[in-house]
Amino acid sequence: MRKFLLVFLTLLLAVGIFAQKLGGKLVIAMETEPVGLDPHLVTAFASHRVLENVYDGLLRYGENLQLVPNIAEEFQVIDPYTIVFKIRENVKFHDGTPLTVEDVLFSFERILNPDTKSPAAAFYQDVESIKAIGDNRIEFKLKKPMASALLPNFAGVNSSIVSKKFVESGKNLQLETNGTGPFYLAEYVPGNYIVLKKNPHYFVKNQPYLDEIRIVFMPEEVSRVSALKNGDVDIAKINEPLNVKQFPEGRFKIYRSPVLSYYLIGINTKRKPFDDPQVRNALNYAINREAIIKTVAFGEGVVTGPLSPMVQPWALLPKDFDEYTYNPTKAKQLLAQAGYPNGFEFEIVTSQRYNFDKVAQVIQAQLAEVGVRAKINLVEWGIFIKRWRESDFDAFISMNSGSIEPDIQFYRTFHSKGSTNVFLYSNPRVDELLELGRSTVDTAKRKEIYDELQRLLVKESPIIFLYSANQIFVSNASVEGFKLLPNESLIFLRETYKK
């Protein structure tokens, strides 16, 4: 009897907790508002954070950044040239229209249509054909053997599935939405707020938990901090680490996660003395990454290698590289061996965005300790971009976006013909590994390939990887279930609730 009573009380408690999750309204303060609502066109970060809760892709990201089924309930890499998706049944758009294979085909035809000018078209430029197989499967055939490398693109906002009927009716997707996501766009007052309401047709049972999310736009951080402290909002994005101290634990919850993007020193590998890999590698030992994080980010960051430590199983950790050990004596030895016993002088091009100038100042001081004299050239952002594109620099301080897929992060940056290889870096073995990585399906073999690649990139250092900053949100104590992902997605708002 006592055992039965214990089980009954446990079930009752579980039901009570679950019941708390249902309904209610969450108010979020964000610094920027969307710039357009068409998922196939938008590039603004703020647009993506809204639309990822309104639209669905074939895949999405799980809590550990793994790819999981979404509109596609199953997916299979048949071979390096072929991916097949099985489309989930009983998915409906917000207007109640059932989603079909035709909507999926139409969505990718729209993305690939040059007239659409979708940024996602570049992701699928090596797709040879897309066709339906029966009533519930879609096959992608590729021109190149890179099926595994292509998969993460299917989880992005720019690859969302749209309603063929809705688009062909003449609706302007930059102004109106009709997705299949957990929330639908109920109201948008530009410059003020957006209201997302629960999608009654959502295909995941019992989700989302909230009835409504109101996103209020507060560009000034002082306003977001004040609104959260006063109880006007439930959760807010915090950019300045020092402001976190204003929120005592107990009354508030702090959420932090390293992001995939990373700070770096980019090096022109064709300019002396940086045409010598040993010189570039010497800088690795001369730089104290932890000190940069402490000084610039007030401790809110993590040291990163070629891949964020959050990207598992692919990333080798910073501790796996001797070069990440702060060792100015070793730096001086390498410089002497390379013919620079008294150091050398060079220019760092940077700007004031994202604390690039502050990072440059710390690095300048650290390099001076080994006799390397870095002159900082602080330029306007437009000039910085121009010089970056033209490889008009000795070195620069900047930030790169990261990815959960090694091919996406590495190929365009380090292949000798890569689209963003402004470092003019060329290594036949690196090119070979990059081609092998995107054409290999077996995960264990791909892991070996990218392990070797990461070691080569650190040893040769066309980029000196520094750190990834933390993203920070703060909520009041009533918020439950909120999770941050390193790609800065807010898709777990569907599992957020207020107790």
**Count of DSSP H/I helices:** 14
The CATH homologous superfamily of the largest domain: Dipeptide-binding Protein, Domain 3
Shape: globular
The structural class is alpha+beta
> Can you tell me the residue ranges where pLDDT is under 50 for at least 5 consecutive residues?
5-10, 12-17
CATH architecture of the largest domain: Roll
Largest sheet: 8 strands, mixed
Number of domains: 3
Task: Work out the number of β strands.
Answer: 21
The portion of residues forming beta strands comes to 15-25%
CATH topology of the largest domain: Dipeptide-binding Protein, domain 3
Q: Please tell me how large the radius of gyration is.
A: 25 Å
Q: Quote the distance from N terminus to C terminus.
A: 32 Å
The percent range for helix content is 25-40%
Q: Provide mean pLDDT, rounded.
A: 92
Short descriptors:
globular, Dipeptide-binding Protein, domain 3, Dipeptide-binding Protein, domain 1, eight-stranded mixed sheet, 14 helices, alpha+beta, D-Maltodextrin-Binding Protein, domain 2, 499 residues, 3 domains, 23% strand
Q: What are the SSEs and their pairings?
A:
Elements: H1 2-21, E1 25-30, H2 45-51, E2 59-61, E3 67-69, E4 72-79, E5 82-87, H3 101-112, E6 127-133, E7 137-142, H4 147-150, H5 164-168, E8 183-189, E9 193-198, E10 212-217, H6 221-229, E11 235-238, E12 252-258, E13 262-267, H7 277-286, H8 289-296, E14 301-303, H9 328-337, E15 345-350, H10 356-368, E16 373-378, H11 381-389, E17 395-400, H12 406-414, H13 428-439, H14 443-460, E18 463-465, E19 467-476, E20 479-480, E21 497-498
Parallel strand pairs: 1-10, 1-11, 15-16, 15-17
Antiparallel strand pairs: 2-3, 4-5, 5-7, 6-7, 8-9, 9-10, 11-19, 12-19, 13-17, 13-18, 14-19, 20-21
Helix pairs in contact: 7-9, 8-10, 12-13, 13-14
